[in-house]
Design brief:
Elements (H helix, E strand, L loop, with lengths): L2 H30 L2 H23 L7 H14 L2 H9 L1 H11 L2 E15 L4 E13 L6 E14 L2 E10 L6
Antiparallel strand pairs: 1-2, 2-3, 3-4
Helix pairs in contact: 2-3, 3-5
């Protein structure tokens, strides 16, 4: 090899590296500004917040008056809109009933999916399966599987539940 061909090989390698870096930077810039990526991030945020808020709304520490009070406060923090207003209006009645029953419930979302997402309107719809472990004050408890459909709204504190409906679990025929 002559010094001239060595020099040419070095320039070719630098040119190839520059081309790869340029293409990588261009590809990154395209993906970063991609609407699909922004939509996926919004979808993931709505799903994560919806699951977390639904778990809160299906949980209650009925073992003490303080537990009921903090549980109802958590319910209000997980909701917004019409659901929040209804929970706020029935808080005194709910406090009495839940304290008297003494039942504790722990909801765990086992599966969830968004069925709709409107980023511009800030709304979403969620379906989920929740296992609720119920422990009554007296007697034997157990785990109940429940299905829910929830409407979500984007707030300053993330996505919160505006409506919550129980769905019937199909019976085996």
């Amino acid at each position: 090899m002559t010094p001239r061909t060595k020099n040419l090989g070095g320039w070719a390698a630098m040119l190839a590296a520059l081309l790869v870096c340029t293409l990588g930077g261009w590809s990154y810039a395209q993906a970063r500004g991609d609407d699909t990526l922004a939509y996926a991030k919004a979808r993931d945020a709505a799903l994560t917040d919806g699951e977390r808020r639904l778990a809160r709304l299906t949980s209650m520490d009925g073992g003490s008056a303080e537990g009921v009070k903090s549980g109802l406060t958590a319910w209000l923090a997980a909701s917004t809109g019409p659901l929040h207003d209804r929970l706020k209006d029935t808080r005194a009645k709910d406090t009495a009933a839940l304290t008297e029953s003494g039942t504790t419930a722990r909801g765990k979302v086992t599966d969830a999916a968004l069925t709709a997402l409107d980023e511009r309107a800030g709304t979403a719809a969620l379906i989920a399966t929740v296992d609720v472990e119920v422990t009554p004050r007296t007697g034997k408890g157990g785990t109940e599987r429940r299905r829910f459909e929830a409407s979500l709204a984007r707030t300053g504190d993330g996505w919160k539940i505006t409506a919550l409906d129980a769905l019937p679990v199909g019976s085996g025929a």
